[in-house]
From TrEMBL, chain A:
Any one of the GO BP annotations: protein transport
Family of the protein in this entry: Belongs to the small GTPase superfamily. Rab family.
Membrane topology: Lipid-anchor
Cofactor annotation: Mg(2+)
GO molecular function: G protein activity; GTP binding; metal ion binding
Protein name, UniProt field: Ras-related protein Rab-4
Cellular component aspect of the GO annotation: early endosome membrane; plasma membrane
Highest taxon, organism lineage: Eukaryota
Catalytic activity: GTP + H2O = GDP + phosphate + H(+)
Role noted for this protein: The small GTPases Rab are key regulators of intracellular membrane trafficking, from the formation of transport vesicles to their fusion with membranes. Rabs cycle between an inactive GDP-bound form and an active GTP-bound form that is able to recruit to membranes different sets of downstream effectors directly responsible for vesicle formation, movement, tethering and fusion.
Pfam family, one: Ras
Subcellular location: Cell membrane; Early endosome membrane
UniProtKB/TrEMBL annotation, chain B:
Stretch list, region Disordered: 410-487
Source superkingdom: Eukaryota
Domain Ras-GEF: 194-471
InterPro entries per the UniProt record, alphabetical: RA_dom, Ras-like_GEF, Ras-like_Gua-exchang_fac_N, Ras_GEF_dom_sf, RASGEF_cat_dom, RASGEF_cat_dom_sf, Ubiquitin-like_domsf
Domain N-terminal Ras-GEF: 39-166
Pfam families associated with the record: RA, RasGEF, RasGEF_N
Domain Ras-associating: 506-594
Alphabetically ordered keywords of this record: Guanine-nucleotide releasing factor
A single Gene Ontology CC term: plasma membrane
GO molecular function, one term: guanyl-nucleotide exchange factor activity
One record GO biological process: Ras protein signal transduction
Designated name of the protein: Ral guanine nucleotide dissociation stimulator-like 3a
Amino acid sequence: TDFLFKFLVIGSAGTGKSCLLHQFIENKFKQDSNHTIGVEFGSRVVNVGGKTVKLQIWDTAGQERFRSVTRSYYRGAAGALLVYDITSRETYNALTNWLTDARTLASPNIVIILCGNKKDLDADREVTFLEASRFAQENELMFLETSALTGENVEEAFLKCARTILSKIESGELDPERMGSGIQYGDASLRQLRQPRGSAAQARQQCNC
Amino acid sequence: LKNKSFKLYGAVFGITLRREPVQQSADPTEAFVQYRTCKVRRLKAATLDKLVSHLLDPCCQEQDYGRILLSTYRTFTSSNKLIDIAVNLYSLCKTVLKIQLQYFLLSWFPHSSLWTVLQMWLEEYSDDLRDAPMHSSLRLMCLQLRGHPALFPLAKHYETLLKNFQAEGHCWIIYSLNKGVYEADNLADFMGFSVTGVAEQLTRMDADLFMKVVPFQCLGCVWSQRDKKENLSPTIWATIAQFNAVTNWVITSLLRSSSSVTQRARVIEKWVRIAQVCRELKNFSSVKAILSALQSNPIYRLRKTWAAVKAMSVFENLCETFPDENCVLTSREIFVDVSYEHISQSDFLQSSAGGTVPYLGTYLTVLTMLDTALPDTVEVRLESESCFDAHATYYIFIEKSVCRLLSGNEGSKKNADQISVSSAGSSGSEIEEISASQSNTEAFPSSSSPDSSTMSSSSSSSQQDLNLNPSSSSSSSASADPHLVSSHKRSVSMTSLPFYNRQVDGSCIIRVSVEFCNNGNMYKSILLTSQDKTAQVIQRALQKHNLEDVSEQDFTLVQVLAQGRELHVPEKANVYYAMSTSANYDFVLRRCPKGQRKQLIRSVSLSSGRATK
């Protein structure tokens, strides 16, 4: 892999964070419990713009009910999915708090995508698409409505976030070598470290995927 | 035939082969152990009726089945329904038998199995039946049992339980957290409290709440209120409320408008000292609460204050108590070894012999993840059947972690001897678990913690001594001293569970990834037994990687050694013996170059199997 990003999934309890994560990791692969030892989720390698990126995804999975999601959880995260439930205004109202925490406790450059989850429950909707996208715009967030149930936009949310981080690295806005950026180089990549962007083609060749 | 599943009248069974030691003469110094292989049938999924009738099946080979069901049935049904089905089924069987067999078998079927289950329910899961104030399921139980003369004695016991519950009244469900205590203080008061005084008071409250935790309420779907069920876990919520009350107290004590930087720094120092004492008291719940507050955004951003704090090293040291916030990453291994990898890094393990108040969040998180990841039902012929596999996993996790801690605490109050006995017994059943599982999910071999749980089935512990090394089998008599107990447990775990990077008892777990395959799966874990040939392992790995459409013949199995070296496992080798045990147990499936199916490039010296083409 070329890079390793630390990702967070944050948001109020009951918004479906763990389901989003599970949907993303298990993806289209059918579950075959016969051969599973343990639940293997937590990271996934994706291919973004010719680079292989390992996403290491942290999930609070219920701990947000305890006020225990703090500095040590956020530290060094490169990206985050900020999740609310479109059928619950309460979870939407809590977004500001989560956002403040993420921006101050993770790195200030953290790339955040807002996810309005449970898109499949449109009949019970309490937060409109328009309202949320305005919020996203004001706070410089990307925005998608997702459904962990159907899988709609789940992949996109993670990939979009990863893509943005990569482009920030390429434009020099993010420096992977800075401590706490949440970005690490994968094994083969040290060589490419300081090479000009022209070597991207070469990198693609090495990748074999 | 290692791992077949078959369906039978609304139930799916899994068949596994398992090796068990043959009982030999009682000489513990015997240098070898004989094994025999036997077939084990385990229920994997079934309709509710079938789940219950399996419970009453006297031929049921799964000793822990009753406990698994009783620990986890809440995920798919209610107590009332379970009682109804069990008793109705019992009556039905009796009637049928009366007619057909003329009382012939009545003495053992299904009377004894139902009796056992009901007794277990009464003794170990009675909290389930509390549901104050109406105690409806307990009433139903009494009523139902009254209908069957054979069950009268049990009915009496249940009635006594009902009376006890009624006598307790309603006070049980109300956890009045006296928030006034936290709010009334002003800064001067707080600084006047003694550090130990506060720590002890917190610990008393936390311990009180923790002792009341009812294990089933920890189930992921119950406590996290999946599907917005009403709150079924008051004991968990009481714990959470206490935790949050403590963090709020810490935060508010620091954010008074009047306080100066130095004053705030002194308050932080005081809280750090309180946390330190809580840690000494093994109250990890409060330690975590205080640390969370100090690391929260409103406090963390007070740069000047932090700069004025002395003894930062104590604070940082305390933070190390909770080494990794990221449960997702550890949960992969958490099944393999609940306490060894994950908890032993903190002080949990050494203190698990008694008197610990853990931070419950860690366990609840894992259970939530299990709830997310494991399917509740499987579709079989358009019939929805509860997926029991998943519940077995829950059970194992709950039993082995939460119950262990709970029983540890209770035991420490009563009698240290009891703990040691139960721990020795249960490690036996874990071993069973492991050998029974053979790459099958339900046992999650993995999931066993090396420590005690409340369960200890005598039959399993009787055969297990052979499995253990002499030192550990002797220690069951050893120890009133909790430290002895815990070190004993550790040694058991080291020698008897399948680990990554360790071959134990004819099995181990290897990690297999597929080269040039970028489907998002880094590696998959496979349980390897001493019976597995290369081809089988490759096939299993491909299946796990969801690559069923390719032929196993196109792949070779390669172990990745240190310094870029590799070990090519020959086609006909027994992987267990062929692999290098000194390296990491990391394997790669490599596609053979075109036209060169299974041509061995180079085989490093192997202990078994000739390297044939």
